[in-house]
Specification:
The complex is a heterodimer of chains A (378) and B (599).
Chain A (H helix, E strand, L loop, with lengths): L3 E9 L18 H21 L3 E10 L9 H12 L1 E12 L6 H9 L4 E7 L3 H6 L6 H14 L3 E8 L6 H12 L5 E6 L7 H7 L8 H17 L3 E4 L2 E3 L6 H7 L4 E4 L4 E4 L2 E5 L3 H6 L5 E6 L2 H12 L6 E2 H8 L3 H4 L1 H10 L3 E4 L2 E4 L5 H8 L4
Chain B lengths: L1 H5 L1 E8 L5 H11 L17 H6 L7 E8 L2 E8 L8 H9 L3 E7 L6 H12 L3 E7 L8 H12 L17 H11 L12 E10 L3 E10 L1 E3 L3 E4 L5 E3 L2 E5 L3 E4 L1 E3 L3 E5 L13 E4 L18 E7 L5 H14 L4 E7 L3 E8 L2 H13 L5 E3 L6 E5 L4 E4 L11 E15 L4 H10 L3 E9 L2 E9 L7 H8 L5 E12 L1 E8 L2 E2 L5 E4 H18 L7 E7 L2 E8 L14 H17 L1 E4 L2 E4 L1 H5 L5
Parallel strand pairs in B: 1-3, 1-4, 4-5
Antiparallel strand pairs in B: 2-3, 6-7, 6-15, 7-14, 8-13, 9-10, 9-15, 11-12, 11-14, 16-18, 16-19, 17-18, 20-21, 20-22, 22-24, 22-25, 23-24, 26-27, 26-28, 26-29, 29-30, 31-32
Helix pairs in contact in B: 4-5
Classes of the chains: A alpha/beta (378), B alpha+beta (599).
Chain lengths: 378, 599
């Protein structure tokens, strides 16, 4: 019997300094704390490996924080531990996140030898003023160097994260950034619209009018420009915020959007396995003390939440929602369940289309409106 | 046997709102040992949460107390009454069950508009009136002056009126003794056929409709076959009892007593308040006169936010109607809001209370449309139709003229606020019909004013202009010809029938402008521009625009986000449920009520 696929997410919550817009589980930490954390993380990996012997890991994503801030050798240790305890697929896809200022030639070689075959660089912006607003300390040269190190070490599948909608950013800034990054030998771009999350320094600055709030219409125009520009350069949009050259879509992320199973290890990591969602504690002391007993927020899915998640995730992709797949999975009739709202969304608001057995969002800017409508079942 | 009735006193307490009626009632319960003071919640008789929160009494609760006077034990039945102007009819119901009324007057504020109205009601019912001066503990109390005012303004003797503080518990026995001394005892015929007045009723999920009754003649006990004389429905009595203030079953209710009857009455319409109950086998020949059936004066549409809840709304209104005979409703259909009911109320407070009870007690989300009054529309063919729903107003080419109801409004106020009140009344198309100085600190102003102008926010406005010192009372007077128009609101070019209003032509522009401004605040931005227009007969008189919204969220969605994002979108969905689609425009259900709160 063939084993079920499982994606593995490994969280490294440390970074050199906290970015002004970030509300993730990440913070600067001492070497001693890092050491304790890694010990706990490796314990959890061992325990999970035992538990999931019936699964085969086909994608691994090491995210953060900034995994590249860890001491040399730490990532190799983690991946070695994973291979020893889990059953990993022969052509497992391993992505590691890094920042241009902490990625070195040595690290590139370490990661490559440990099996990493994909690098995701947090570039976010190239304009020094924008980087300052975001509280990020790197420059474009470091980005180019990082890419060279990666390619020389054999990691050729490279993603850049960029942000659209940074306060004071204008269309020329966006164009300049796109000009420069598309000239680099990269395969994937994640272009996120900057969300002002609650309780971040950036949001506070905007609320107190120290920074101008980006106009939503401008952001829409910048983003439309980005979509067209990237397509021209051979980066095709396959999800709301993700663009890839042909054959370079992120397998790890595709698994999320297809509601595949994933296991998250590390502080505050989320998991979805056997129809249950849960997360690890976000309290570092608790985690270090008992990494294998840190699960909380355990939530078994029911038919409604499962349907809702399927709809939510599928409609984020350009492929859209596969009606036949939905109907089979849930023994339901998608069209009959949503007749009224499909009519409203397609005929009155012109936000979705149904073609070739797929429901697609025609306007990704209104995804929340579309999805929340389709959360109503008749 | 007359001796038994000689030891009963049935009385109620009437007062202007806030003069301390419920506090005195609580104090009487405490002094008679009916309720131990440690069990005494503030305002015990106000059983609805709503009543206690708002500090008002809406429902009547009759309570039996025992008090020993000169070595003899007396039964005192207190029937509490509401004080707000909207609930005059409830007062008249209590009065019909009593022989006496305590009239509370605030020792600092003196006679107020509602004091006068209640006294007139009590006198109409031929009740003995016992004035009681309350709040003598206040530094500003002037009991002697207030006694004189009672004698001058109300023309009843007040020399021996007990001077008390219900709050501080001062001189409460004086009141109890005066009740026994001054009020007549009931004089019912014990052997005569049963004759008993239903002065209130409520619905109990287990026992069915419970009738609160005053037995005038005869007696009623468990197993008796009774009938309601108006509806001619017969039932077998399953329980009789009285309140202490908790319901306490007993063997029988005899002539002169106050209590309750349960008879497995399932249909709420079969136990009508004001009806007379007698026995099937030995009926009384003549029913009691009952009392004046009240007419609703304020009307509005009530719709379920969720269209599927129409049935639940109907059941809820039916149950409320049992406790509240003044509530009227009939089915109504709106293009914008679907199926609902057009309801008639005694006033704006009554309307708010019904709304809140629907929401709290029946857990319904409802939309209420702007309140209006009943207009008389004379058509060109001579026919007169009554219109309370703006949507039913015929095309103006078929209308000869229209009339609107006016009220006689009395306002009692300290003289320094006269100017401000007069400005308010002129602004509301009122005509002054009299000014009378009661003394150097109180003036009575009389106005003839359209009812339409006082149902929105007149009372709030009056209170803020007079720092709460003025009081008002009104009754319907007549219909007068008036230049009225229908004001429509258009959303993205489509008339939203639920927002239409009938207004005086001189007010149409200001009101239309205020409404579109308010709606601009409450209608969220949508994917397209939403023009909001006010129009009279196709002519646009005001316009605002809700700008388009082009982006809701464009965020990263990684593994950890899935549950969080789903919950966020579920919330958005719940929010959507409170929206109504008017054409393609989404309007929050609050929008309909928000436009009432325009100054």
């Amino acid at each position: 019997m063939s084993k079920k696929n499982l994606s593995l997410y490994i969280h490294i919550p440390f970074c050199v300094s906290k970015c002004s817009y970030c509300n993730f589980c990440s913070f600067p930490a001492t070497l001693d704390t890092q050491k304790k954390y890694l010990r706990a993380l490796n314990q959890e990996i061992v325990a999970c490996g035992k538990k999931y012997q019936d699964r085969v890991i086909n994608t691994i994503y090491i995210g953060g924080g900034t995994p590249s801030t860890l001491n040399d050798g730490a990532i190799a240790d983690i991946l070695k531990n994973v291979r020893e305890n889990f059953c990993t697929s022969k052509n497992v896809d391993i992505t590691i996140e890094a920042n241009p200022n902490s990625f070195t030639r040595k690290k590139a070689e370490e990661y490559s030898q440990a099996g990493c075959n994909r690098l995701s660089l947090g570039l976010q912006a190239i304009n020094p003023n924008h980087l300052k607003i975001l509280n990020r300390c790197h420059n474009f040269k470091q980005c180019k160097d990082s890419i060279n190190y990666a390619i020389n070490s054999g990691i050729t599948d490279i993603n850049l994260d960029i942000l659209i909608g940074i306060p004071t950013q204008n269309i020329w800034d966006v164009k300049e950034m796109l000009d420069k990054i598309t000239a680099l030998p990269i395969t994937h771009i994640s272009a996120y619209s900057l969300i002002n999350e609650d309780n971040t320094p950036l949001t506070r600055q905007i609320v107190s009018k120290m920074l101008p709030e980006p106009n939503s219409l401008d952001v829409v125009n910048f983003y439309d420009f980005t979509v067209d520009y990237l397509q021209e350069k051979g980066f095709f949009r396959y999800e709301i915020s993700n663009f890839a050259k042909k054959g370079y879509q992120s397998r790890h992320n595709l698994n999320y959007w297809a509601r595949g199973e994933y296991l998250g290890v590390g502080l505050g990591a989320y998991s979805f396995c056997d129809g249950v969602h849960w997360e690890n504690t976000s309290n570092l002391a608790d985690y270090i003390l008992a990494p294998t007993e840190s699960q909380c927020g355990i939530e078994p899915e029911n038919i409604i939440t499962a349907k809702e998640e399927f709809i939510m995730l599928a409609l984020r992709t350009t492929q859209g929602l596969d009606i036949a797949k939905y109907n089979k999975l849930f023994s339901a009739d998608f069209i009959a369940e949503h007749r009224k709202n499909i009519d409203y969304l397609s005929n009155i608001l012109d936000l979705i289309e149904i073609k070739d057995g797929f429901v697609r969002a025609k306007n990704f800017y209104m995804t929340n409106t579309i999805i929340s409508r389709l959360f109503e079942f008749e | 046997m007359q001796d038994r009735q000689n030891h009963i006193r049935n009385f109620c307490i009437v007062a202007h709102i806030d003069h301390g009626k419920s506090t005195l009632a609580d104090r009487l319960l405490e002094y008679t040992g009916t309720v131990a003071s440690r069990d005494l919640q503030d305002q015990l008789l106000d059983s609805m949460d709503l009543e206690r929160e708002r500090g008002i009494t809406i429902k009547l609760t009759p309570t039996r107390m025992k008090y020993t006077y000169k070595g003899e034990e007396y039964i005192l039945n207190l029937i509490d009454t509401p004080g707000h102007v909207d609930f005059t009819y409830e007062v008249s119901r209590s009065l019909a069950a009593c022989e006496g009324a305590i009239l509370i007057v605030d020792a600092a504020q003196g006679v107020e508009a509602q004091t006068l109205a209640n006294v007139h009601l009590a006198l109409d019912n031929r009740l003995e009136i016992l004035p009681v001066i309350n709040k003598i503990d206040l530094p500003s109390a002037e009991p002697e002056k207030v006694k004189k005012e009672i004698e001058d303004v109300i023309c009843i003797p007040a020399e021996h009126a007990p001077c008390i503080s219900a709050k501080e518990g001062i001189n409460i026995p004086d009141v109890l003794e005066a009740i026994i001394r001054e009020f007549p005892s009931p004089k019912g015929k014990e052997d005569a056929p049963l004759k008993c007045l239903v002065f209130d009723s409520y619905y109990d999920n287990f026992k069915g409709a419970i009738c609160l009754v005053r037995v005038f003649d005869g007696s009623v006990r468990v197993g008796d076959k009774i009938k309601f004389m108006q509806t001619d429905h017969a039932f077998e009595v399953t329980e009789v009892g009285y309140f202490t203030p908790k319901a306490k079953p007993c063997d029988a209710l005899l002539a002169g007593e106050v209590g309750y009857i349960a008879a497995s009455i399932k249909k709420v319409s079969e136990a009508r308040v004001g009806d007379t109950i007698t026995t099937v086998e030995n009926p009384t020949p003549e029913p009691l006169p009952g009392y004046k059936q009240v007419q609703p004066v304020v009307f509005s549409g009530i719709f379920p936010v969720d269209g599927n809840k129409y049935g639940e709304l109907k059941d809820a209104l039916e149950k409320l109607k049992l406790n509240d005979s003044a509530l009227e409703y009939q089915p109504e259909t709106s293009v914008a809001l679907g199926f609902g009911f057009r309801c008639g109320f005694l006033g704006l407070l009554h309307m708010e209370i019904i709304q809140e009870r629907l929401e709290r007690e029946f857990n319904l989300d409802i939309i209420t449309t702007a309140p209006g009054v009943n207009y008389h529309v004379y058509k060109t063919d001579g026919e007169m139709i009554e219109v309370s729903n703006p949507s039913n107003l015929p095309d103006l080419s078929y209308v000869d003229h229209m009339e609107e109801p006016y009220v006689n409004l009395r306002i009692f106020t300290p003289p320094e606020y006269m100017g401000s009140i007069m400005d308010l009344c002129v602004d509301r198309r009122g005509e002054n019909t009299g000014v009378e100085y009661l003394d150097e600190k109180r003036v009575r102003l009389d106005y003839s004013i359209p009812l339409n102008e006082i149902i929105y926010d007149f009372f709030d406005n009056l209170k803020s202009r007079t720092r709460g010192y003025a009081s008002l009372d009104y009754e319907l007077s007549e219909y007068r010809p008036s230049k009225l128009v229908k004001l429509d609101i258009l959303l993205k070019g489509e008339v939203c029938d639920a927002l239409s209003l009938i207004v005086h032509i001189d007010k149409a522009y200001i009101r239309g402008k205020a409404m579109v401004e308010k709606l601009k605040e409450v209608i969220p931005r949508q994917m397209f521009e939403v023009p909001i227009q006010a129009a009279i007969g196709g002519k646009i008189i005001a316009r605002e625009t809700v700008k388009a919204y082009r982006k809701d969220v464009l965020a990263k969605c990684y593994g950890g986000d899935v549950t969080r994002k789903r919950k966020l979108l579920e919330k958005q969905k719940e929010g959507k449920k409170k929206m109504r689609n008017i054409g393609s425009v989404e309007v929050p259900s609050d929008a309909f009520i928000s436009i009432l709160k325009i100054d």
